[in-house]
Amino acid sequence: MFSGCTSLESVHVKCNTASVPQGCFTGCSKLSSVVFDSIDELTALNDNAFYGCNSLTSFSLNSTNAKSLGSNVFNGTNVQSLQIPASITSLS
Question: Considering the entire predicted model, what is its pTM?
Fold first, then answer.
């Protein structure tokens, strides 16, 4: 979807989506902030969703139904502020 988009600096999602696809934001080198705001349909962040987003420092997931974070979701990032819901029951 947005993989390799080097000009993308922030993402603020307010609409419902079921999951963040595998590798969706991989290699978005300027992406620094991601907010998923009140998205009750979101249940999963799939493998490598933010892999290699080396400018990513802030991530917030506000979903009461989120259940899983795939493998390497934040590998290659510099996340310093991470907010995930207590509903997360699976970390790959």
Answer: 0.90
